[in-house]
Recover the amino acids of this structure.
C-alpha cells in the first residue's frame, strides 16, 4: 500500500481541461455562471458562444443554436432570454486580450483575437480607417467565441489518399469547405499523423513546417504549441503566411509546409514559390465547391498550374469534418477507396 | 524621581509622534518620485515592447521601489487569477490595499485611480497619453510635496518634542 502511495506521489498526472473550460475564463461572471451550469452533454458539444450587444446570448451546437435565460435554462420565448449588456461586451473584450488591447493591434485590424489553446474570438464594431485600410476596431459590439477542438484520428480515412505509398511522398493537398466544417481540425490531425509517422501505412514521419498566422492550428502560447501537432513539426506562430513559408523554407528544411486559410494574392504568390522549391504543401481555403474555387482569380491561376494533387471537400452532412469528396488534381475526377490503395 | 521619569516618557512619546508625522511628509516626495519612474517603466513596456499588462506590471514591480512594488504586484496577481475582473477593478483593489500603507495622500490616489480606468483598454498611443498625463500630474504633486516637506519636516520634528515638553511642564 505504502509503495502504491509512493509511486502515485511520484506520478505527475496532467489533466487537460476541456475546450469549453479553456474559454470560460474570458467570460464575465454572470455569463460564466449561466454557461457553467449547463449539462456536460451540452458543454462538450459547444461550438460557439455569440455575444451581441442588447441581443440574446446564443450558444452554437452542432444541431443548432440555443438561447438561455438568466438561470441558464433554455429560454422559451425571446422575452426570457439573457440579453448581453454593453458591460458584458467590454469585459469580454478586455479579458480576451488579457486587459492589454494595445498588444493586439494587428489582430484587431484582422477582426479576431486567438486565445491560448487556439480558440478564435471574432469581433465586430466600428472600424477606423487610415489611407482606406482598417486601422483598428472601436466600439466593439459583437463577439463570436469559436471553440477549437482536437479530434485525434479525424484524418485517418483521408491519409491513404494524400500519401503516395509508392514513393513515400505527400501529395500537395488543398482542403476546402464552407466555414465551420472542420478544415482546421482536419489539417491539424493530418499534420500530427504525418509528423509522427503512420505505422499502418508504413509511413515514416516527415519534417513539417507550420505557418500558424492565427495561432489556431498549433494553439501556441509563448511560442510553444498547446495542441498536438507532432514530434517533427516546427511552428512559426503569428507570422504572415507569405513571409512565414519562405522563412521556414530557408531555415528549417521542411519536407512539407502546412498553413491554414490561404486567401490573399500574396499567399498564392508565396505558394507558387514553395511549389517550385520542391516542398509539398498542405493548406485550406473557404469554398463550397470546385466551381467556387474557380471563380476566385488567384485560385484559378493555382488550379491552372495543376500543382495541387488532391482536393478534399469537407461538409457537416453527417457530422463536422465529413469528407464529401477527394478529387485528383491531375484528372479532376473524384477518387475512390480503390485508388487510395494503389496511390 | 517618578515625576521625572513620567516627564521623560511624555517628551519621548511627543517626539516620536512628531517624527512620525514628519516622516510621512518626507516620504511622500520619495514615493511620488519612485511612482513617476515606475509609470515611465510601464509606458516603455506598453508602447515599445507591447508587453501584456500583467507581465508589464510584474516587471515594474520587480524593478521599482519596494514601497510601491505591492501596488503593481497585487494588480498583476488579480489579473492573472482570471477572476473575470477588468484592469480597472484589479488596479482599484490593489490601490485600496496599498493606500493605508503608503505616504501618498488623497489627490495622489485620485490620479492613480483615474489612470486605472484607462489601463489596457486602448491602443499603445492612447495608453502612452494616459500614462504621460498621470506622470505630469504626479510631477506637479511632487513639486508641491517637496515644498510641503521643506516646511513641515523640521516643524513636526521640533513640535513633537516641544509639545511633549509643554505637557510635562503643565503636569509637573
Amino acid at each position: 500500500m505504502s509503495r502504491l502511495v509512493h509511486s502515485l506521489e511520484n506520478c505527475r498526472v496532467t489533466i487537460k481541461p476541456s475546450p469549453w473550460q479553456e474559454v470560460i475564463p474570458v467570460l464575465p461572471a454572470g455569463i460564466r455562471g449561466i454557461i457553467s451550469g449547463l449539462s456536460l452533454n451540452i458543454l462538450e458539444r459547444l461550438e460557439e458562444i455569440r455575444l451581441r450587444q442588447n441581443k440574446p446570448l446564443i450558444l452554437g451546437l452542432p444541431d443548432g443554436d440555443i438561447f438561455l435565460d438568466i438561470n441558464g435554462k433554455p429560454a422559451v420565448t425571446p422575452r426570457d432570454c439573457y440579453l448581453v449588456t454593453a458591460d458584458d461586451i467590454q469585459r469580454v473584450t478586455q479579458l480576451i486580450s488579457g486587459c492589454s488591447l494595445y498588444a493586439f493591434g494587428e489582430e484587431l485590424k484582422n477582426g479576431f483575437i486567438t486565445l491560448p489553446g487556439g480558440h478564435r474570438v471574432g469581433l465586430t464594431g466600428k472600424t477606423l480607417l487610415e489611407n482606406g485600410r482598417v486601422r483598428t476596431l472601436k466600439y466593439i459590439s459583437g463577439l463570436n467565441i469559436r471553440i477549437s477542438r482536437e479530434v485525434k484520428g479525424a484524418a485517418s480515412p483521408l491519409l491513404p489518399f494524400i500519401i503516395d505509398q509508392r514513393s513515400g511522398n505527400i501529395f500537395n493537398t488543398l482542403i476546402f469547405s464552407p466555414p465551420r466544417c472542420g478544415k482546421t481540425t482536419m489539417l491539424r490531425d493530418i499534420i500530427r499523423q504525418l509528423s509522427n509517422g503512420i505505422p499502418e501505412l508504413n509511413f515514416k514521419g516527415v519534417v513539417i513546417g507550420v505557418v500558424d498566422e492565427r495561432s489556431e492550428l498549433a494553439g501556441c502560447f509563448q511560442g510553444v504549441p498547446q495542441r498536438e501537432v507532432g514530434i517533427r513539426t516546427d511552428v512559426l506562430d503569428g507570422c504572415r503566411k507569405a513571409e512565414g513559408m519562405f522563412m521556414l523554407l530557408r531555415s528549417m528544411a521542411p519536407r512539407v509546409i502546412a498553413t491554414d486559410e490561404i486567401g490573399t494574392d500574396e499567399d498564392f504568390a508565396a505558394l507558387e514559390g514553395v511549389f517550385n522549391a520542391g516542398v509539398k504543401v498542405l493548406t485550406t481555403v473557404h469554398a463550397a465547391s470546385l466551381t467556387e474555387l474557380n471563380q476566385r482569380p488567384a485560385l484559378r491561376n493555382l488550379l491552372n498550374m495543376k500543382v495541387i494533387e488532391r482536393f478534399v471537400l469537407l461538409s457537416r452532412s453527417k457530422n463536422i469534418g465529413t469528407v464529401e469528396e477527394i478529387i485528383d488534381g491531375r484528372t479532376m475526377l473524384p477518387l475512390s477507396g480503390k485508388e487510395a490503395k494503389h496511390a | 524621581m517618578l515625576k521625572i521619569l513620567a516627564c521623560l516618557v511624555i517628551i519621548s512619546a511627543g517626539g516620536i509622534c512628531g517624527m512620525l508625522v514628519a516622516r510621512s511628509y518626507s516620504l511622500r516626495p520619495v514615493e511620488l518620485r519612485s511612482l513617476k519612474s515606475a509609470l515611465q517603466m510601464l509606458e516603455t513596456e506598453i508602447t515599445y515592447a507591447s508587453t501584456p499588462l500583467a507581465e508589464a506590471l510584474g516587471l515594474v514591480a520587480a524593478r521599482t521601489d519596494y514601497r510601491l512594488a505591492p501596488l503593481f504586484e497585487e494588480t498583476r496577481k488579480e489579473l492573472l487569477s482570471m477572476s473575470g475582473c477588468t484592469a480597472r477593478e484589479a488596479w482599484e483593489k490593489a490601490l485600496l490595499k496599498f493606500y493605508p500603507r503608503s505616504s501618498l495622500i488623497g489627490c495622489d490616489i485620485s490620479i492613480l485611480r483615474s489612470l486605472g480606468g484607462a489601463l489596457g483598454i486602448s491602443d499603445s498611443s492612447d495608453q502612452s497619453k494616459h500614462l504621460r498625463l498621470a506622470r505630469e500630474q504626479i510631477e506637479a504633486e511632487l513639486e508641491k510635496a517637496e515644498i510641503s516637506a521643506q516646511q513641515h519636516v523640521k516643524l513636526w520634528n521640533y513640535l513633537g518634542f516641544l509639545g511633549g515638553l509643554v505637557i510635562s511642564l503643565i503636569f509637573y
User: Anything to note?
Assistant: The CA atoms of residues 214 and 238 of chain A lie 6 Å apart. The first strand of chain A starts at residue 48 and ends at 52.
